[in-house]
Amino acid sequence: MTGSTPTAVGFIPAAPLLVPQVAGGSASLDDELRDACRDVARRLSESADEIVVAAAVGDGGRWTDEATWGFEGFGVDRRPADARPRVPWQLGIGGWLLDDVGWKGPRRYVDIAPEHSADVDLSARSAVLVVGDASARRNEKAPGHLDDRAAPFDAAIARAVATGDVTALGSLDAPLAAELMCTGAQAWRWLATAIGGQRVVAAELLADTAPYGVGYLVGYWRLAQ
Amino acid sequence: MTRLYHAEVPSVTDHLRWGSRAFAPADLAVMAIVNATPDSFYDRGRTFGTDKALERVAQVLDEGADIVDIGGVKAAPGGTVDAAEELERVLPVVEGTRARHPDAVISVDTWRAEVADVVCRAGADVINDAWGGVDPDLAAVAARHGVGLVCTHAGRQTPRTRPHRIWYDDIVGETTAYLVDLAESAVAAGVRRDGIVIDPAHDFGKNSRHSLQLTRATDVLRATGWPVLMSMSRKDFVGEVLDLPPDDRLEGTLAATAVAAWLGAQIFRAHDVTATRRVLATVSAIRGDRDLALGRRALA
């Protein structure tokens, strides 16, 4: 994030079921979590001229607001043919959320994998929406089954988000994160590096929950200008 | 008006030959689930232990199961079950079944070649490779013993792991291509062409919508020419359609069974043998492949 001064950061899970169309008839079960994400997106939109959606997906792609998103690979009905470039679904969750809260301003999507220090140019009044979650091994029904290390690992991340602890977020144990199927660690470490010395002047953890064995964190940081 | 159904699709062989049985393309068959496990999702240990498993075998054969499918390791994650423990659970059930029911078609649900080798020597007729070609030696074992093989698409998942946010650009195309490739590889490894079936493996490496898409595309699977096996019984995709737990998924399972049978699937791996047989007999009669069991109404 060269020469950048993001105004704010939002944290949301990379859970496809956040998108009501994907969740189907059970969408309302997760309304509280979804509303927390909407709350974060609204706060970002109030404090920024541009929103950058970031996730660690794999090939380092970059897209502008000409791109679109879709979830047909999860079996959701295909949208009408659309020639626009399509972002990976993880970034699409951020795209859906921005549409859902009515964000009309400019947006970009960045895949910060595989180089977590990848250079991302931000304008003076950008906000960053990071898509990723904590461990997927929180209980026996979890995608990765139970790993006893998952709860303390996730608690440390939740603390870091809640207190604006950039250093803690930046020093997450990458091999352990991989073992615990934590999809957010890479993006969060990138974020910590990118915002560097910039001070977090307000931090709030809006949700910290794992209803399906995956650690979902929703958070908001306002950064010093 | 053009009307197509399964029987008009060319088959790889005239008959599928498993153990003592030869199944013509129009025959619909029930493969009864026999869990030699303490923890499988539906029966939760009801048939764990050799005696209970053999009672289950006797019961399902009595109910008209065409094949028994004996498994010793539950599909979901959990405590490790190594090959030795798997054999400890499964082998006596295979031996007991063979001794008590000489003509029964015995399938064993395993991904391990070393387990397959031992059970085949004890009389198994089919290896149900439910995790889809994880052990590269499994087909060679089936070839060596001349037994049948179920080729499965489990989304390249590691055995006993759950799919997590799995994405398919083309679930039907990818699954079909993978299954045909696996079946042809099995033939290349020496497995009898008339002993191979393909199974899209509902829920394995798939979310519920993927499983529904594959059910809808049963005719595409059938069009490969390979006999199609469907393993849908009381699975989560049925549960998620209806928001019901395993105990309440019979009707949904039977609806999927009827649709898949109509579209060309031939073998149905099931917990509920009698109900599944009745559904398949009815589908078979509607297709015109089976005559009335009783013809009196308005005919006297």
Rounded to the nearest angstrom, the distance between the terminal CA atoms of chain A is 15 Å
Strand order of the largest sheet of chain B: 8-7-6-5-4-3-10-9
Q: How many separate helices of chain A?
A: 7
| Helix/strand class of chain A | alpha/beta
Jot down its keywords.
A: 225 residues; alpha/beta; 7-stranded mixed beta sheet; B: 300 residues; two-stranded antiparallel ribbon; 10 helices; 10 strands; globular
Explain the overall architecture.
The complex is a heterodimer of chains A (225) and B (300). Chain A is an alpha/beta fold. Chain A has a seven-stranded mixed beta sheet with strand order 3-4-2-5-1-7-6, sandwiched between helices. Chain A is globular and about 45 Å long. Helices cover 31% and strands 19% of the residues of chain A. Chain A has seven helices and seven strands; from the N terminus they run βααββαββααααββ. Chain B is α/β, with parallel strands linked by helices. Chain B has an eight-stranded parallel beta sheet with strand order 8-7-6-5-4-3-10-9. The longest helix of chain B is centred in the first third of the chain and has 18 residues. Chain B is globular, with a radius of gyration of 18 Å. The two termini of chain B are 34 Å apart. Classes of the chains: A alpha/beta (225), B alpha/beta (300). At the A-B interface, loops of A face helix 6 of B.
Condensed summary:
Chain A has helices at 20-23, 31-47, 89-100, 150-163, 166-170, 174-179, 185-195, and strands at residues 8-12, 50-55, 62-63, 107-111, 126-131, 200-209, 216-223. With 225 residues, chain A is an alpha/beta fold. With 300 residues, chain B is of the alpha/beta class.
How are the SSEs placed, and which strands pair?
The complex is a heterodimer of chains A (225) and B (300).
Chain A: E1 8-12, H1 20-23, H2 31-47, E2 50-55, E3 62-63, H3 89-100, E4 107-111, E5 126-131, H4 150-163, H5 166-170, H6 174-179, H7 185-195, E6 200-209, E7 216-223
Parallel strand pairs in A: 1-5, 2-4, 2-5
Antiparallel strand pairs in A: 1-7, 3-4, 6-7
Chain B: E1 16-18, E2 21-23, E3 29-35, H1 50-62, E4 67-71, H2 83-100, E5 105-109, H3 113-121, E6 126-128, H4 138-145, E7 148-152, H5 171-188, E8 196-199, H6 208-216, H7 218-222, E9 229-231, H8 236-242, H9 250-262, E10 267-270, H10 273-287
Parallel strand pairs in B: 3-4, 3-10, 4-5, 5-6, 6-7, 7-8, 9-10
Antiparallel strand pairs in B: 1-2
